[in-house]
Specification:
The protein is an alpha+beta fold. A hairpin with a 2-residue loop joins β14 and β15. α2 packs antiparallel against α3. The radius of gyration is 49 Å and the shape is elongated. The two termini are 59 Å apart.
Length: 452
């Protein structure tokens, strides 16, 4: 029984100690002076931008296909004598690949033979025409003599009719001979067309580069069979000029009204995060796309790639420059959002009526200060208050607020200069401060050391 009472007494003492220590700690913490987090007012260039993501694309790409079917038997050589491959630099007319042409060569030989046969038929038709002319001449003379004699004792009626029939037959044969010549000429033209088609198909077996450029994609291998039917199979993708590139950017419909041709643009790529590339808006495509009820427009950005760093199809993080104000005073946006408690404001700036004076809702009275004489009033400005630390309190300064990029805001007036400190938050007790004042935090014993 005594042991139980003793334990209860010890627990009661411990509880009282805890309550007393906690009360002491809270009272001590509340008695600490208020500290403020401040930021320095800086002078610099303010650039307002719209951010978007796009893809680096070659300015002009040519898709080289095959117009005939067959097996790839070899690749050509680039201007450096190396086999055509990814990244090869080619000139117009360079042989890229060779398709097996044995069947097409045979067709061309057959078409050439058919042409010779048609030409021979034309010559025969022309010879027949000359023969028909001679026969017509003889038949006409016989008929003329028969007409002079007429049916009589000197010329039997049957002979008279025979001469007349021979003359008419010769005339008809002349017409037949002329028609045969026209037919032979048509046969020759047809044979020539067939030969031209077969020779063209034979030529298609040699795939040549239609432009000067760089091969950015090779889509076939040696031994692979390509089949050309309704659509020509793609063999190579050639970029005409990698010194000039484009960035295709998807811009939301809410921002597209701020995008204009010629507008300056800067962007970065993940491959070179420390490099900032520059360009300008080329055109805004009007064929919008909708994805999950979000409408976007494709904007083409033209950029110089003389350095050769930009590779096709890199992802670009793009900033469209809407406005630029050089050499202006900049404060963090947090300085314009922070509001002190009434007892933290210097007494002379307090007012009896809440909400008098400042745009951000503090009970203060501040007279607006004139803007910087060299700058004048900011365009599209509004009034706001920033807070300047003064001992353990703060003093309001009314300034003109201009553009903002979402992180910092342009200000002017109020006597604020570069290097001035403005309050952005109230400091909270740190863990280190709590550790030194909290009686429940274990205290480490420090050993004294001496040089030996």
């Amino acid at each position: 029984m005594k042991s139980l009472m003793r334990k209860k007494s010890i627990l009661l003492l411990v509880l009282v100690f805890i309550i007393a220590s906690a009360t002491w700690y809270l009272l001590k913490a509340n008695g600490q002076p208020v500290a403020y987090s401040t930021a320095e007012v800086k002078r610099g260039d303010l650039v307002v931008t719209i951010t978007a993501t796009g893809t680096v694309e070659p300015e002009e790409v040519v898709d080289v296909g095959a117009q005939v079917a067959g097996q790839i038997v070899s690749f050509g050589k680039d201007k450096n004598g190396k086999t055509i491959d990814y990244g090869s630099t080619v000139e117009q007319g360079t042989v890229l690949a060779q398709i097996d042409d044995s069947l097409y060569a045979a067709d061309a030989l057959e078409a050439a033979a058919q042409l010779k046969l048609a030409e021979a038929g034309l010559l025969r038709s022309q010879a027949d025409l000359e023969q028909m002319k001679a026969k017509l001449y003889q038949a006409q003379n016989d008929w003329d003599r028969a007409q002079k004699l007429g049916p009589s004792e000197a010329l039997a009626a049957s002979s008279y009719d025979a001469y007349r029939s021979a003359f008419e037959t010769a005339k008809a044969n002349m017409a037949v001979a002329r028609a045969a010549i026209e037919q032979a000429q048509a046969t020759v033209a047809q044979a020539q067309a067939v030969l031209q088609r077969t020779q063209r198909n034979l030529g298609y077996c040699t795939i040549r580069s239609p432009v000067n450029g760089v091969i950015i994609d090779r889509r076939v291998n040696i031994g692979q069979t390509v089949v050309a039917s309704l659509n020509a199979p793609s063999l190579f993708l050639i970029a005409k000029d990698l010194k000039r590139m484009q960035v295709w950017v998807s811009v939301n419909e809410a921002d597209i009204g701020n995008i204009q041709p010629g507008q300056p643009v800067s962007f970065t790529v993940d491959a070179f995060p420390d490099n900032v590339f520059h360009g300008e808006v080329g055109k805004v495509r009007l064929n919008a796309t909708m994805t999950q009820n979000v409408v976007t427009y494709t904007v083409e950005i033209i950029t110089d790639n003389s350095s050769g760093k930009l590779l096709p199809y890199l992802t670009a993080n793009v900033n469209f420059e809407l406005s630029r104000h050089p050499n202006v005073l900049l404060v963090p946006n947090a300085a314009l959002r922070w509001n002190p408690n009434p007892d933290q404001i210097v007494h002379e700036f307090r007012t009896a009526e809440p909400g008098a004076g400042a745009d951000n809702g503090n009970s203060i009275e501040v007279q607006p200060s004139a803007p910087h004489p060299a700058r004048g009033a900011l365009k599209n400005h509004r009034w706001a208050v920033v807070w300047v630390p003064e001992a353990d309190q703060v003093r309001p300064v009314k300034v003109q607020v201009g553009l903002s990029d979402g992180t910092v805001t342009e200000i002017d007036g109020g006597g604020i200069q570069a290097g001035s400190q403005v309050v952005i938050a109230e400091k909270q007790p740190t863990d280190r401060d709590t550790a030194t004042t909290n009686p429940f935090t274990p205290q480490l014993r420090r050993r004294s050391s001496s040089n030996r």
